[in-house]
């Protein structure tokens, strides 16, 4: 099965927004084993959309469109696609009723347009916005229309389009995946370690991905039931975890900080942060996780030496002898924040994030991370490239700190 | 002039990365007055790339490609495009020499491939990576090839492709723009205020943009020289600033935090942060700016009530009588961090970022921001929607806090 994604929206062609829907949908299709050969973006122009559809029909078995389902005069996707496939639009009374319930007094005649749908289509009910999506089969092609805003498109793909597509490409079977998350191992090193296993697999299959500063392996199986699919997947997940060891920080989790927050809450532990080069980023990432207040007490951003001494009690001699960017300072910062807050774990960062501030002895990318817990004092110096951007160095530093905490929790 | 962007890369079709180059280039073309009618993404497949080029030739005057210029066997953009336009590739000795100099001992025979270029092209020298770009005119079409990685594509567009395009569409004139940045005014309110002026303009023109939680107006002029272009632009920028007033936070600046950091340094002032609901985000955003250590002393992330009392000296009575999310607590936090750090300005946030933790009295999105400076005590309550995401509420809170600081600096 070959698929083409068509995004409709002049705002994409003006560069006002990026076509992130295409990435999200492509990932989902790759998981289903559907080949995507083209992404196309076209403006809110019926003539050009029609031409683009003619081309897509000639080269794809599945066309998925995003955008142009809204209530304004610009929104012409449904009208144009229906016409291109010789279909009429009808007013779907159930969808109109939903719109009235959702919008109440804000409902205008324009809004009713959103309930007009191509005849004989499958309605894809939109629980995340006003415009319903739809799907139909015509002229040898499956056509699926989804709304454009990512906050609607993402769940509409996952909960509406994906089940429709799964039926198409599995003869009633299901496709399920698990995602193994890895921190602290490069992509090529990971591929080397897994090559033998990955090449020997048929169902499930395993595919590696590189993310910023992290890696991921997707294990995907096709089976008669969800239970059976996971029955095929889970032993392979186990094998991969065994091969890779402790660099695997989770399966089917969102981020390292999520694992840290859940791990702390599970074990009834609390944490606090002492940040220099990350400047608040560790606190920000921990508190990105809803419910983090159950384990995160707070922290100090001690950008100046004075703050390191005054708030965290770092000794003036340590700063003088070893400098602010040193293992010794990192350790005293971690101890200091733990003492101040009474948290079970204190974690600290100090380093040179660049682009300025580097020296021969301590080039940009020199970072120390300290961890203090009951009977535990640890400092690590992650390997960071001096040529990395300030943003990358700060993000990797926070990542390394979270990984250190994760490993500490495992030992508790 | 009609332009089509073609991105070449299977990793885009697999959803491993997003086509951010297309957004960046589209913005630049919009500034030059060049219409973009299509974005196309195709894999590293010469047959399909050739088909895509045939279609693009038939509907565009300018084709800009990104990706596929690298040293590996997958990288076939130059070969395929040259063939599609009946051109041969030649070894460019100057570029080969540059490659040797840049890569030194890491140079392999494969890498030499990158110096092969279509005959009679204009070489676009790449100072940001190894693969040179190129441009040529053939069969009624201008073709420009740029490398794919955004860290190379962005400067290659700005400093290489843009001047080439400017010549095409201005008969030797130049096109210049200024960007007016706005915080605290909605997009439609801004458009209402500027409609009369914008409609009356011809050269320069003005175009509004909505960014996440902010707005922007681009003023663009065409003229015989850069000086003349800015001579046309600057009075209109002045008019827009007068119409919009103090919601304009800067012209040709990157972000609100950049303006705050520069403003503080200019006036010799220092700042510190006391964060509850933003959890470190204010510190993170301030320290995103290189050189921020000249004005940012540090801060406290006081997620728990105990930390608010212990580190910032918020009174237990205030917390008991008004709650942690209150104007009174915000004020005491700002005063407390200023006292602790000795900074000229203390800024604080406390609120309900959601999704949990809201109540009838204090729903999700209830946020207070406090500012303390010499003789100044201020609290504001930004208007945030309870339906916004946790991320949005936290970002807007930090933005509102920075805007409050910016206004305070102006008065100093």
Report what the structure shows.
Two copies of one chain form a homodimer. By secondary structure, chain A is of the alpha/beta class. The first copy, chain A, folds into three domains: 169 residues, 3-Layer(aba) Sandwich (Molybdenum Cofactor Biosythetic Enzyme, Chain A); 78 residues, Alpha-Beta Plaits, CATH 3.30.70.2860; 156 residues, Maf protein (Alpha-Beta Complex), CATH 3.90.950.20. Chain A is 43% helix and 25% strand. Chain A is built from 15 helices and 17 strands. In chain A, the strands form four sheets. In chain A, strands 2-1-3-8-7-6 form a six-stranded mixed sheet, with helices on both faces. The radius of gyration of chain A is 26 Å and the shape is elongated. The model of chain A has no long low-confidence stretch (mean pLDDT 94). Chains A and B meet through helix 2, strand 2, helix 3, helix 11 and strand 14 of A and helix 2, strand 2, helix 3, helix 11 and strand 14 of B.
Oligomer: homodimer
Known CATH architecture of the largest domain in chain A: 3-Layer(aba) Sandwich
CATH class wording of the largest domain in chain A? Alpha Beta
Count of individual beta strands of chain A? 17
- Here the CATH topology of the largest domain in chain A equals Molybdenum Cofactor Biosythetic Enzyme, Chain A
Please report the number of helical segments of chain A: 15
Shape of chain A: elongated
Counting helices, strands and paired strands, the structural category of chain A is alpha/beta
Largest interface: A-B, 74 and 74 residues
């Amino acid at each position: 099965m070959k698929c083409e994604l068509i995004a409709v929206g002049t705002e994409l062609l003006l560069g006002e927004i990026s076509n992130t829907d295409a990435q999200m949908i492509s990932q989902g299709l790759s998981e289903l084993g559907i080949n995507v050969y083209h992404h196309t973006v076209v403006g809110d122009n019926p003539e050009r959309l029609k031409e683009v559809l003619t081309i897509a029909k000639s080269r794809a078995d599945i066309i998925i469109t995003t955008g142009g389902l809204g209530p304004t005069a610009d929104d012409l996707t449904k009208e144009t696609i229906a016409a291109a496939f010789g279909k009429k639009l009808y007013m779907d009374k159930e969808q109109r009723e939903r719109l009235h319930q959702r919008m109440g007094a804000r409902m205008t005649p324009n809004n009713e347009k959103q309930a007009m749908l191509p005849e004989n289509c499958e309605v894809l009910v939109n629980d995340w916005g006003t415009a319903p999506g739809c799907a139909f089969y015509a002229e040898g092609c499956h056509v699926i229309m989804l709304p454009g805003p990512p906050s609607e498109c993402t769940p509409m793909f996952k909960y509406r389009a994906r089940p429709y597509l799964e039926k198409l490409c599995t003869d009633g079977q299901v496709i399920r995946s698990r995602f193994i998350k890895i921190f602290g191992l490069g992509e090529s090193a990971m591929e080397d370690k897994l090559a033998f296993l990955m090449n020997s697999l048929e169902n499930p299959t395993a595919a590696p991905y590189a993310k910023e500063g992290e890696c991921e392996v997707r294990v995907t199986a096709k089976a008669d039931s969800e239970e059976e699919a996971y029955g095929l997947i889970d032993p392979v997940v186990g094998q991969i975890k065994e091969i890779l060891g402790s660099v695997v920080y989770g399966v089917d989790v969102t981020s390292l900080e999520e694992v840290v927050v859940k791990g702390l809450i599970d074990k009834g532990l609390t944490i606090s942060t002492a940040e220099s080069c990350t400047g608040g980023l560790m606190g920000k990432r921990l508190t990105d996780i809803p419910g983090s207040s159950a384990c995160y007490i707070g922290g100090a951003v001690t950008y100046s030496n004075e703050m390191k001494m005054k708030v965290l009690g770092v000794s003036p001699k340590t700063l003088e002898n070893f400098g602010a960017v040193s293992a010794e300072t990192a350790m005293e910062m971690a101890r200091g924040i733990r003492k101040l807050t009474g948290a079970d774990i204190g974690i600290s960062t100090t380093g040179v994030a660049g682009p300025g501030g580097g020296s021969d002895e301590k080039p940009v990318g020199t970072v120390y991370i300290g961890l203090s817990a009951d009977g535990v004092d640890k400092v690590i110096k992650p390997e960071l490239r001096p040529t990395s951007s300030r943003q990358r160095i700060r993000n990797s530093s926070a990542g390394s700190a979270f990984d250190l905490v994760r490993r500490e929790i495992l030992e508790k």
